[in-house]
Structure formats: structure tokens, C-alpha cells
């Protein structure tokens, strides 16, 4: 009898955790598990703001997929998914033959939410993947290098605008605060010439988060030269910079958009019902109307007890992956699935190398203590996918 085919799309937090879980749970020859990812490596999305600023070597945010898979239990296909076809139970790839499945795990992450803002896709940078963040780091360095070679005063070359002061925006600004003094030394530029502006549409930075922690973060970052523009949506992004609501222009050669995410467009294109691209999954993480189509990570949508959507996080994706691996194993063995319940352990946001804010174990944390806990939490991910050897190789203070 043919083995049941499980195809996992995406080696991010959700997909890789599902795959690593399956290779642990399943015995040999119980199922044919295939993982598809566009790169031969997994990038640690939660660390991308660091190489994007130049404070971390990208190598530390990259894990070779082959190094965490057992090749006799999981087949890895490096290709780009271009279409999912739930009616025919097929996945179409950019280069390879279509893949048939009995169970599909969709874990292709998110896409930037641009709200249709004119010029963003063309002119802004996005913290999305490893090559994208290498480009941001190189671009900033190039702008600094160019500044002193020109005769005219081009302050826009030294002005960095970060659009959106959610967690990604704040964590990125925190890294830049550490990086800018180094860049100034390297390129002989006075620190006061550099502007770092974080623009936020909502009336506060980190909207919805604990006020005391937000105040701490704002004070910490302002003291290190960050200019916050709250209550001020970006309405357009041009090759020269950004246009704010009301018409004010900020000339900037570097605009980094951190204004939010939506689900992967392949789901909408497959005719699956979505809200901002995300699929409201059932208690077993299945897309509505499908017994064999599971969605994990940023493309899934789950509501809390107050009927408010949980934000898409690595914490959520990891727990989903762990749970789904067990459920798929049960299904294959003729058993029944257990409903998924998210267990929010806390939220921590870094403010550069030495500081962070957050809530963990029901307590508010600030400064060094929060920063250490954030690092330990980062290391946990390496441990989950590759055990102690990977953790010791990649963990970095
Ligand atoms: P991802 O981890 O993004 O993985 C998606 C994978 O799919 C990638 O490997 C990608 O290459 C692959 N892929 C995409 N499209 C295709 C395709 N067409 N074909 C083949 N492969 C494809 N969350 C937290 O809980 N804690 C944090 O501290 C935290 N920090 C963050 C910091 C930053 C800078 C950012 C940007 C996010 C952070 N998050 C954090 C959010 C967290 O990173 C995401 O929620 C999480 O990565 C989602 O996991 P995922 O598996 O859905 O997608
Ligand atoms: P987000 O949606 O959390 O924040 C986006 C911010 O951009 C919001 O504050 C929004 O008001 C603002 N914005 C939207 N339109 C704007 C405009 N036109 N002009 C200016 N500002 C505008 O998105 P994110 O920060 O990219 O985070 C994505 C997900 O990843 C979230 O679920 C977040 O919780 C998670 N994340 C978690 C961590 C962490 O736990 N440390 C870190 C990064 C991201």
C-alpha cells in the first residue's frame, strides 16, 4: 500500500517545526514527508532586524535545512511554490513537477501589508528575508560612504525613515541606535548629522501594548537620538523619501517599511476564504471546508477568548507546528486529533543589544534582564530544531 503523503510548504517557524516534529514522532515507512522551501536554508525571521542594521552577521540568522532534517525520514525539495490546488490536492512549483499530497501543511509565512500606499513597493525596503536584509545593510553603508564623496550637502543620505512603530519597527530602530555610532566612526560622519525617524500612524508607539513598557522604550530610544512621529500616517513613498498625512515631506534615501503583514497571497489565489490574506483555521488548524489542508504560522488566523485575533508570531507558529506534528501522526495511525490551544507565554521586544522590554511569567521586564531573557528565548528556537549542537553553534549574545 502507498504511504500517506504529507507535504509541508515553507521552512519557517511553522513549517520547520511541523517537519522536525514529524520526523521525531513518525516511525520509518509510516508516511512520505516532503518539505518544500525556496532556499536551502531556514532564516530566523525573528532575528532579521539585526543583520538588517548590521549588528549581527547574517550567518547567525541562517540554518542549513539539511543540517536539521533526517534524510531517511523527510525529503527536502528546494523550489518556489507558485500555486496550491486544494481541489486536485496538488502543489505547483516554479521548476519541478507538481507534488501530490494526502495532507498539506501551508507554512509560507506572510507578505508585507502596504495598505495600497503609493510607491511603497517600489521605493521602500522590507525586513522579510536574508537577502532582503543584506541589501538594507549594504544600502545604508553605501549611503554613508557616498555622503562624504559629494560636494553638495545631501542630508537625505543620512536620514533613515522607519515606517511603522509596531514590534518590528521598534526592534529595528533599537538595532540602528547601536549601529549608527559605529557607522559614523567608520565613515567619518558626525553623529548629529544622522537622523533616525520612526513614523507611526496610531496615537502611540507599539499600539495596544502595556503603557509603562511603551514609555520606557520611547524614552530609551529618544535618549539615543530616535525621533518619533506618532499619529502621522505615511501616505506616499517616493524615490526622494516619504510624504506624511497633511503633505509634509521627509527627504530620505532609506525608507524601511515595518507597517504590518498579511497572509501569503497563494491562499487567496487558491480560492480559500481569507481575512487580510489569513485563513481562519478550525480547532485542528484546517482551512474551512477542508479535511486535509492545514495552515500554520502567519497565514493562519486564530481568535482568543474575547474574539480578538492573536497577532501572528513565531511563538504561535512554533506551538502550531509542534501540535500539528502530533495530530498528523495520530491521523496516520488511525487515531483522532486534539484541538489546538495557544498558550501565550509572554512578549519580549529588544531595544538593541543591551536592552529590551516585555512581559513574561506575568511580570513586566525592562532593560538588561529583559534583554537576557529575549536572547535565551532566541536560543530556544535553535534548540527545538537542532538540539544543543545547533544552539551552541548559533547562539550569540
Ligand atoms: P516564516 O518564518 O516567515 O517562514 C516562511 C518560510 O516560507 C520561509 O522559509 C520562506 O523562505 C518560505 N517561503 C515563502 N514563500 C515561499 C514560496 N512561494 N515557495 C517556497 N518557500 C517559500 N515573533 C515572535 O514570537 N517573537 C519575536 O521576537 C519576533 N520577532 C520578530 C522580528 C522581526 C524582525 C520580524 C520580521 C518578525 C518577528 N516575529 C516575532 C514574528 C515571526 O517572525 C513570525 O510570526 C514567524 O516567522 C512566522 O512564521 P511562519 O512559519 O509563518 O513564516
Ligand atoms: P504590526 O502590525 O504589529 O505593526 C505595524 C505598525 O505600523 C502599527 O503600529 C501600525 O499602526 C503602523 N502603521 C500602519 N500603517 C502605517 C502608516 N501608513 N504610516 C505609519 N505607520 C503605519 O506589524 P509588525 O511590527 O511588522 O509585526 C508583525 C507581526 O510580527 C506582529 O504580529 C508582531 O507581534 C510580530 N512581531 C513580534 C515581535 C516580538 O514579539 N518581539 C517582533 C516583531 C514582530
Care to describe what's here?
A hairpin with a 2-residue loop joins strand 15 (234-238) and strand 16. The chain has helices at residues 13-25, 49-53, 120-123, 130-147, 167-187, 211-223, 265-269, 314-332, 367-394; strands at residues 5-9, 32-37, 41-43, 62-64, 74-78, 81-85, 90-93, 99-100, 103-106, 110-112, 125-126, 159-163, 195-199, 226-229, 234-238, 241-244, 249-251, 254-257, 261-263, 279-280, 293-295, 300-301, 346-350, 356-360, 363-366. It is α/β, with parallel strands linked by helices. It folds into 2 domains: 5-112 and 261-344, FAD/NAD(P)-binding domain, CATH 3.50.50; 120-257, 3-Layer(bba) Sandwich (FAD/NAD(P)-binding domain), CATH 3.50.50. 32% of the residues lie in helices and 24% in strands. Helix 1 packs parallel to helix 8 (314-332). The mean pLDDT is 97. The strands form 8 sheets. A 5-stranded parallel sheet has the order 5-2-1-9-21, covered by helices on one side. It has a 5-stranded parallel sheet with strand order 11-18-12-13-14. It has 9 helices and 25 strands.
Amino acid at each position: 500500500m502507498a504511504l500517506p503523503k504529507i507535504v509541508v510548504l515553507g521552512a519557517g517557524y511553522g513549517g520547520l517545526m511541523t517537519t522536525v516534529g514529524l520526523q521525531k514522532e513518525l516511525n520509518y515507512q509510516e508516511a512520505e514527508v516532503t518539505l518544500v522551501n525556496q532556499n536551502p536554508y531556514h532564516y530566523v525571521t525573528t532575528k532579521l532586524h539585526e543583520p538588517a542594521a548590521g549588528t549581527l552577521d547574517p550567518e547567525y540568522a541562517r540554518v542549513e535545512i539539511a543540517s536539521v532534517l533526517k534524510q531517511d525520514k523527510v525529503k527536502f525539495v528546494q523550489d518556489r511554490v507558485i500555486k496550491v490546488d486544494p481541489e486536485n490536492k496538488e502543489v505547483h512549483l516554479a521548476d519541478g513537477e507538481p507534488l501530490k499530497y494526502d495532507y498539506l501543511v501551508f507554512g509560507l509565512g506572510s507578505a508585507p501589508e502596504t495598505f495600497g500606499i503609493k510607491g511603497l513597493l517600489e521605493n521602500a525596503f522590507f525586513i522579510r528575508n536574508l537577502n532582503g536584509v543584506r541589501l538594507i545593510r549594504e544600502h545604508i553603508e553605501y549611503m554613508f560612504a557616498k555622503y562624504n564623496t559629494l560636494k553638495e550637502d545631501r542630508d537625505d543620505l543620512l536620514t533613515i525613515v522607519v515606517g511603522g512603530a509596531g514590534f518590528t519597527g521598534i526592534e529595528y530602530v533599537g538595532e540602528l541606535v547601536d549601529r549608527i555610532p559605529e557607522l559614523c566612526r567608520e565613515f567619518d560622519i558626525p553623529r548629529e548629522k544622522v537622523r533616525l525617524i520612526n513614523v507611526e500612524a496610531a496615537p502611540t508607539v507599539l499600539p495596544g501594548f502595556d503603557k509603562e513598557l511603551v514609555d520606557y522604550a520611547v524614552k530609551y530610544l529618544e535618549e539615543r537620538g530616535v525621533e518619533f512621529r506618532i499619529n502621522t500616517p505615511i501616505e506616499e513613498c517616493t524615490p526622494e523619501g516619504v510624504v506624511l498625512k497633511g503633505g509634509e515631506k521627509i527627504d530620505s534615501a532609506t525608507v524601511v517599511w515595518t507597517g504590518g503583514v498579511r497572509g501569503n497571497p497563494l491562499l487567496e489565489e487558491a480560492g480559500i476564504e481569507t481575512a487580510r490574506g489569513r485563513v481562519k483555521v478550525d480547532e485542528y488548524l484546517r482551512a474551512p471546508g477542508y479535511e486535509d489542508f492545514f495552515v500554520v504560522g502567519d497565514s493562519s488566523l486564530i481568535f482568543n477568548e474575547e474574539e480578538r485575533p492573536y497577532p501572528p508570531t513565531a511563538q504561535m507558529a512554533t506551538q502550531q507546528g509542534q501540535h500539528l506534528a502530533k495530530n498528523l501522526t495520530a491521523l496516520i495511525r488511525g487515531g483522532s486529533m486534539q484541538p489546538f490551544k495557544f498558550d501565550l507565554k509572554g512578549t519580549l521586544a529588544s531595544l538593541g543589544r543591551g536592552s529590551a522590554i516585555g512581559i513574561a511569567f506575568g511580570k513586566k521586564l525592562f532593560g538588561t534582564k529583559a534583554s537576557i531573557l529575549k536572547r535565551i528565548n532566541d536560543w530556544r528556537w535553535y534548540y527545538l530544531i537542532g538540539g544543543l549542537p545547533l544552539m551552541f553553534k548559533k547562539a550569540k549574545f
